[in-house]
Amino acid sequence: MGCALFLLFTAVPLVELYLLVWLGGLWGFWPTVALVLFTGLVGATLAKLEGLRVLGQWREALAEGRVPEAGVLDGLLVLVGGIFLVTPGVITDFLGFTLLIPPTRRLVAKVLRERIQKGIERGTVRVQVGGMGGLGGLGGFKGRGGFGPDGRGPGAPRGRAPEPRRGGGAIIDVEGRDVTAEADESGPDRLGDGS
């Protein structure tokens, strides 16, 4: 994975630079700069419009009590497409427009959903849900919390989950009593006297 990311972040910019220099030699400097600025402007505008459209679909569906057809993955693909279009380059512009056009975005989303589903079934993809990421409190995790074959999230140790601890201490059985009926103004059960 590290090697693939290294190649991605070094090879793609080099190819993009080569293509921009090639286009600059073919068309001239200013037309190439105009192309880069134009695709960046169109990309930012298209990303904003598509993002608002997807957000509107989510709001409408949720207001009607339905699950949104355009899921979170669509919104994420619109965001990535916008980032690609704002980044100067021919390849990133092509990828950005591909992700912002609804029919091709649906196709990419379908392929990604299938790959994620297969990864979850194989146990190579785990999905962590919840709030505060292990800090406890509201929405936090103090035990099992992820999705996967063993129900454990990322960062959890491999192997069998430990059994829950059983208390080994003495059991103290107590009975409560109502002290309001027995309260005596001068007795030790009096509340609020502070002494």
Description:
This protein has 195 residues and is mainly α. It has a domain at 31-126. 55% of the residues lie in helices and 2% in strands. It contains 5 helices and 2 strands. The protein has a two-stranded antiparallel ribbon. α2 (29-63) runs antiparallel to α3 (72-86), α3 runs antiparallel to α4 and α3 packs across α5 (102-122). The longest helix is centred in the N-terminal third of the chain and has 35 residues, at 29-63. The radius of gyration is 29 Å and the shape is elongated.
Which SSEs are present, and which pair or pack?
Blueprint: H1 2-27, H2 29-63, H3 72-86, H4 90-100, H5 102-122, E1 127-128, E2 146-147
Antiparallel strand pairs: 1-2
Pick out its properties.
195 residues, elongated, two-stranded antiparallel sheet, single chain, 2 strands, mainly alpha, 5 helices
